[in-house]
Amino acid sequence: MQHDRPTTTSAYAFAICLLAGLNAGCAVKDVPPSSSSRDERVGDGLHVPSPDWRDQVIYFAMIDRFDDGDPGNNDQGAGEFDPTQNARYSGGDLAGLTRRVDYIRGLGATTLWITPPVANRWWDEAAQYGGYHGYWAENFVAVDRHYGTLAEYQQLSRTLHAAGMYLVQDIVVNHTGNYFSYPQTWSDSDPAKGFVLQADRSGRTAPTQWPFTQNDARKAADRAASIYHWTPSIGDHRSTDQTLRYQLADLDDLDTENPVVRDTLRDSYAYWIGAVGVDGFRVDTAFYVAPAFFADFLHGGDARHPGILQAAAASGRNGFHVFGEGFAMDKPFEDVQARRIDRYMRAADGTTLLPGMINFPLYGSLGDVFARGHPTAELGARIRSMMRVHAQPHLMPSFVDNHDVDRFLSGGSDAGLRQALLAILTLPGIPTIYYGTEQGFTAQRAAMFATGHGAGGVDHFDTGSPLYRFLRDAIALRRDQRVLSRGTPAVLDENAAAPGVLAYRMQDGADAAIVVFNTADRASLVDRLDTGLRPGTVLHGLFGLVDTAHDRIVDSDGRISLVLAPREGLVWRVGNEVRPLARAIGMPSIDPLPAPLLHGDFVVSGDAVGADELLLVLDGDLANARRVMPDAQGRWRTEVDTASLIDPDLDHQLVAWDARGGRASLRRRFRVARQWRVLADQSDPAGDDSGPSGAYRYPDDAGWGSHRQLDLRSVQVSGSGGALRVALTMNDVTDSWNPANGFDHVAVTMFLQLPDRGGGVRAMPLQNAELPGGMRWHYRLRAHGWTNALYSAEGADAGHEGTPATPGARIEVDRGRARLVFSFPAAAIGSPASLSGARLYVTTWDYDGGYRPLQPAAGTHAFSGGDGRNEPLVMDDAMVRLP
């Protein structure tokens, strides 16, 4: 069918018209009067050459939650504005961003990335949620009235460029807002069957921008136009057909194979380059369109609808950056999702698609290692993987938290956050700082300004806050040492079994730097680190997280040994000078171990060359090292306690350390397969997953359907020394959202009360409840598909989760048996002498940036049958007492 096109100038032509200075005659279809009535002239400062993106540091701000520069645009009268609710608009706008540019620049950031500023659907009755985030467009070429005007957006661009900074706009190519759905029935061959329009508060049932106005499947002309895929919500994210054609969370899925859709999307986003001077795009939900789309989006089209990179070049931006979002994380030591992400940057034939993708697998490993106490070898493997899998890892934005995931500090410590931030600032990628991280935010989308949601009535633009000052210094380090932004990493050391040492060298030509972390909450030993440098090379200290980074000299074997303070992070620059060394002396040794695989505690022995005292260090842990005294012949012997070594797949290492002489033995490696004893095995009734009142119901989204993933069927508890293992049998286990932890549509929260220990907390944080039977918890685990967070009770109450504890639980999933298994090393739960008399309380609900809402009426992604402000967020539960 011939598609009728608007007779007015395309958005791209409008942008070029402005660039040519023909302001009076420029027009674009569907730009609201409120925008076109303002001064739309493009003046000096809007268009600047592109930077080298490898050297940039991005600050990511959610417009509605950052700052309110104009309270007059907050409430548009559609019931969408209420700062007391996270689901509604809070009042942040473009004017607020502009007046805070100096705050962002003072941090050291060079680029501002903002959520989509385009006109959005303001409230979705079905979802009971608002479009304050910007991802539910109703017009791709208009500024949302909550955010301000086109002139105010231009002023933000000018202010950034005048400060030597750049602007990245978030864009969406996969969908519009939710204007239609198939709530009951759907037929692929008959799109009109079961079709329902979803009106907004003003009665609008379609976007206002052509051709997206053609959205009624009951009309033959709209069906023939094929602007949308006439499909229901995705039920299985593992299905390529569903992810590319079905609706993501009920958002109307665009047919991005349709030339009219492609032309309009190119025109719409070229408009913002020309009219506002945008310097780059972040593409939301890139996984939900085919990779080949991006070759056309960036390079395709004819002279009337050229690709985005051509449009950018017309404004003088020959390095316009476009990076996509592919929300996918790999399990440790895997790269399946990393390769999936790479397919959006490079086609099978080598054709370049998107210049960059956000590095989600790196994010997952950063959280596991720095927040959850996983072995540092997981991050070491991820660094090697990203350099092996990706052609241009330096152009992939890296991050530690954002608007779609938990804040780092919701499950990690301040010290861990500083380490994670230092890591992204010293590794390839474009470091991206999510607003509020520099102010210690724990809530995912709290506002920075006093009157916004979750701000507590206080502005949070404190340039003297500890994290702001830390980030300012750490960012300055990266910008001063170009080897950190352009170098290639080589992992020098890692701990395969526990938190501890991670070391890598960054190399860029003749320039090099060495970065060393101790991720443990106790001192760790760096033993005989092979730097790959010449003996006598001087390492010049540049940065230290805890202590000063003192200069060091590489020894005669090209190695260094040192003790790292808890949560330390050190950076040295490799100098050019080589200093003479004193004659090396012998080092202590460890005899061969009884066997490579051990089943419990064992005896170890060795020699102490020239030392009257040694420390036997297990997995780098100096705090718990065994002190040994050699006999008159220099021999020593001691026992190794394996109570916390619960994973038979992990390689452990022993080192004999002469602290006075600064000498370490060669490492001895081994594995441990401990014996587990079942302490309790308790069944739970089927079908009791309906809340305390029996009235709760699952969300309407197809992902829950008949699976009833929240129905507990049994709890089995096992022990090995002070280690704990909890196996949950569920009604069903699903992984349709490709969760990193192997299960989705359920969050498990466990509360552990240890025997013979005082204190503890009765409140169940954020769940509107207290523990039953007078129980008080000492440790609490919250785990779902993307989070595995362990807390101690210190600082916990109804509104606070407690103090993050490490290492976290090891999670195993057996979908065939519908089992989730959580294993806790003894050290994670306070190394109890015995588990006899302990109590364990297990609850199920779901979690998405917070425990999922409970509301009286049914919702797509909310539980129903109660008032979530007061009633317990518990679908099913089980109490187990250990004999």
In short:
The chain is an alpha+beta fold and 883 residues long. Helix content is 17%, strand content 26%. An 8-stranded parallel β-sheet has the order 12-11-10-7-2-1-14-13. A 6-stranded antiparallel β-sheet has the order 15-16-17-22-19-20. Strands 24, 26, 27, 29, 30 and 31 form a 6-stranded mixed β-sheet that branches.
How would you describe this structure to a colleague?
The protein has 883 residues and is of the alpha+beta class. The chain folds into 4 domains: 11-484, Glycosidases (TIM Barrel, Alpha-Beta Barrel), CATH 3.20.20.80; 486-578, Golgi alpha-mannosidase II (Immunoglobulin-like); 589-672, Immunoglobulins (Immunoglobulin-like), CATH 2.60.40.10; 677-881, Sandwich (Immunoglobulin-like). The protein contains 17 helices and 46 strands. The chain has an 8-stranded parallel β-sheet with strand order 12-11-10-7-2-1-14-13. Strands 15-16-17-22-19-20 form a 6-stranded antiparallel β-sheet. A hairpin with a 2-residue loop joins strand 16 and strand 17. The chain starts with 10 loop residues before the first helix and ends with a strand. The relative contact order is 0.08. Residues 1-12 and 18-43 have low confidence and may be disordered.
